[in-house]
């Protein structure tokens, strides 16, 4: 299991980005969270098998229909063993 922290910048708040990300993560069997940050960024942490995390990272580059994720900053973080993908903040 691996875990990645992702900062999605661009038009990512107010367009269903977190909810679509949660649906995609659940579809891929991933756990973690998505939350809005005060500066307009969406922060995500995604955890699961490497192949599924890679698929999620590719999906995040496009995101949902009305989102424009101009910049994705991705970093490795320690796996936590969570049991679901949540929307916070």
Chart the SSEs and their pairings:
Blueprint lengths: L1 E10 L5 H11 L3 E6 L5 E7 L1 H13 L5 E10 L7 E4 L1
Parallel strand pairs: 2-5
Antiparallel strand pairs: 1-3, 1-4, 2-3
Description:
- This protein has 89 residues and is of the alpha+beta class.
- The chain has a single domain, classed as 2-Layer Sandwich (Alpha-Beta Plaits), CATH 3.30.70.
- The N and C termini lie far apart (25 Å).
- 29% of the residues are buried.
- This is acylphosphatase.
- It holds the Pfam family Acylphosphatase.
- Keywords: Hydrolase.
- Its EC number is 3.6.1.7.
* Rg, alpha carbons: 12 Å
Detail the poorly predicted runs: none
Strand order of the largest sheet: 4-1-3-2-5
Tell me the number of structural domains.
Answer: 1
Largest sheet: 5 strands, mixed
Number of helices: 2
What is the annotated CATH architecture?
Answer: 2-Layer Sandwich
CATH class assignment: Alpha Beta
Q: What's the average pLDDT?
A: 93
Strand content: 35-45%
Helix/strand structural class:
alpha+beta
Gross morphology: globular
In helices, the fraction of residues equals 25-40%
Q: Give the number of DSSP strands.
A: 5
CATH topology: Alpha-Beta Plaits
Termini Cα gap: 25 Å
Order of helices and strands: EHEEHEE
Domain Acylphosphatase-like: 3-89
EC number: 3.6.1.7
Pfam families: Acylphosphatase (PF00708)
Family: Belongs to the acylphosphatase family.
Short description:
It contains 2 helices and 5 strands. It has helices spanning 17-27, 50-62; strands at residues 2-11, 31-36, 42-48, 68-77, 85-88.
């Amino acid at each position: 299991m691996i875990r990645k922290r992702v900062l999605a910048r661009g038009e990512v708040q107010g367009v269903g980005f977190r909810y679509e990300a949660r649906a995609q993560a659940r579809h891929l069997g991933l756990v973690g969270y998505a939350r809005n940050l005060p500066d307009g960024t969406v922060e995500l942490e995604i955890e699961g098998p490497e192949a599924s995390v890679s698929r999620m990272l590719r999906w995040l580059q496009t995101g949902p229909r009305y989102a424009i994720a101009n910049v994705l900053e991705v970093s490795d973080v320690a796996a936590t063993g969570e049991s679901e993908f949540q929307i916070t903040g």
